[in-house]
Amino acid sequence: MRIRYIVKFTMIFGLMGCFAWGPRASKYLPETTALQQHYDYDGEVIIIGAGAAGLAAARVLEENNVSYVILEATARLGGRLGESTEFADFPIDLGAEWIHNNAEILDVLTGEPGTAASIELIPYHLKNAGRWDGESYETVSQWELDARFSYFPEYKFKNSTWFNFVRTHFGVPVEEKIKYESPVTAIDYSGERVEVKTEEGQLFVADKVLVTVSVGVLKADVIAFNPPLSATKRAAFEEVEFDQGFKLFLKFSEQFYPDAIECTGEAVDKAYWDVTFGKDVNDHVLGLLARTPSVENYYALGSEEAIVTAVLEELDLMFDGAASRTYTEEYMLLDWGRQEHVRGTWVEGFLIENATLETLNASLAHKVYFAGEVNDARRQLGVPGAILSGFDAVDRLLKGQD
Ligand SMILES: Cc1cc2nc3c(=O)[nH]c(=O)nc-3n(C[C@H](O)[C@H](O)[C@H](O)COP(=O)(O)OP(=O)(O)OC[C@H]3O[C@@H](n4cnc5c(N)ncnc54)[C@H](O)[C@@H]3O)c2cc1C
What we know:
By secondary structure, the chain is an alpha/beta fold. It has 14 helices and 21 strands. Strands 8-7-17-18-19-16-20 form a seven-stranded mixed beta sheet.
């Protein structure tokens, strides 16, 4: 979602009290998921991608003793989830970071009531935020921050990360079945069984395949399908916006900035946030999340060092030189848009038209299925949507439904 979009929605709907994201999103949640079902299936399955969706689907296969393998392009699990435990004195989310919903969504994802209550979470209810239009800085009023939290309740993990949550509940139980560094380049579903080829030329054959790569990877035609994908399916991929973007983390010797800074202006989509918000830690880490079109201006600078310099200059303008005075010369930049096996940031899944969603989710001859953030029929955002789509797709796959 546009980083500023949330704030606008807060003002319009939150204050009118007629609509709120939390209850709206919760309304679409299933009472039970595939994780609580029992399946009898004696075929073989290949899952492509070990992100949140692929791991969630794999966990269902694992629980039901289905024979399967996960082919993952990179050397790690998690996809757009990542964690750094080295940069600061607390674990940092390199990809997804916020739970964009009421915390109870965690119970639905694990299928275990009490999950949310057993994890220390931080209500992301800001007390101190600013707005920067490139020239002047103003403080955001408390009523606006209160309205934002009531319209769009969000939480963060206090001593943990989204990555760790997904690894613990979905990654660890299936990890032995992951074949890392196995980028898939071709899927042939013209015969009775499906043939899957990797870049190294390895051939895997199964009865059903579940594709969970990002829509950026699908748009880029990295995987050749035989028979080719229909023009309608390809048009549905193209319809979905998948902006470029990066996360930059900077360490300072003291905190001179507020909880968050919203950046405004023409062709701007970026925000700063205090990464330590609500955490009992000593380090001071400020994050910058930049997406298309803001990210293009940073890319034009040519190097990471030049980006860091530009960011420090901007912060100095806002805070009277405090950034360069207190910068510890430590930064970390994660450019998700430029990662070969991701090619973007996130999708505003809940905005996808129903007809497009149906096309995105349609199987190929009941042999090849699709799951991932973009396939989320539960209309959530980000990680929960990806996990739920994994459950839903594997349910259809095992039942032979479209
Ligand atoms: C910077 C950033 C911030 C975000 N913030 C949030 C947030 O705060 N909260 C939230 O809920 N969500 C957030 N998201 C979105 C969230 O990360 C995604 O919705 C979710 O992780 C998507 O999971 P997925 O399984 O659908 O896809 P992915 O995580 O993209 O997983 C796909 C997997 O497929 C693998 N793969 C790709 N190509 C191939 C191939 N050819 N062969 C084999 N494997 C392949 C990839 O390596 C990857 O492991 C954020 C994302 C980004 C990038």
